Amino acid sequence: MTGQARPAGPQLPPVERLRPGLWSIPIPLPTAGLSHVFMYLFETDRGAYVIDPGWDTDTGYAAVEAGLAVAGYALTDVRGIMPTHMHPDHYGLAGRLREVSGAWIALHPADAALLRLDPMDPAELIDKANAPLRRAGAPREVLRDVTPAHLPPGPLPAMARPDILLNDGDRPDVPGWDLRAVWTPGHSPGHLCFWEPVNRLLLSGDHILPRITPNIPFGTGAADDLLGDDPLGDYLRSLDKVDELPAEATLPAHEYRFDGLSERVKQLHDHHEQRFGEVLAALAAGPATGWDVASQMEWSRPWAEIEGFVKRSAVAEALAHLRALERRGLVRERPGEPPAWERIPA
Question: What sequence ranges are listed for the domain Metallo-beta-lactamase (predicted)?
Fold first, then answer.
């Protein structure tokens, strides 16, 4: 390993050879916030196999082509594509890359069930994004704040259907490598990490990042059955699952690679336990909507200054914590428009 590559500001980190036959290639993202996703490339005697090729933009496509060239490959040399999950910053370019190379695409069945196979208009995406806000009782003016201006221009492209469904413990056919898929639901219902035992590397996707915590979606209406009824509980159990792996280094999809997997797992557990405490404190005075609970939790900025999709994510996180506490028998949801939550007396 060549050290921890921490990008300064918006500058992308370099293409790097991390181990013999293993490369990291940063692919720029078109959205505010995270500047890039890491595509990981495995060299084999049959060609290149990649994890997380990035968002479907011309800039991203050019970065994939340039990064492959640094490792000695062309786009047509790609033989397998393994997105960790179906979010567009990881899965978006999979179809385009398959078209030029003939490579197979592998994905977990739970995420394959969520794929959109036709383009989505920004207005439709906004409506879906507002679902957790409506469910939580957000004021009308807040719903108007989440607009297409927060999205990349134009409709979101259709997502390619995978050729292979990877389940927990499956070993994708990557010649010369003993990769194992590790199902880690939470950030998405079919999120996969990949374990490489020879070098003791965990390719963690968005499941474990070195600095930030992944958003756990909840409250999106019709998609709830696919997302699962306790995504945060799934996520916390998935943390324990990967903590059992004797990883020497973790290679995430964003930010920078890091050592100390168990320490990071503990930090994430502690973070969510603190969040549980904030939620219970918000309900101490009596029943409250998800919106009211979220507004009383601690965020990186004052609640009044949080806008757009960031506020939507905050509300979804509050709802996910409420549902997990419900599963623990500590709170319950009271039906209504919107529903309210209350603590269950000890």
Answer: 36-254
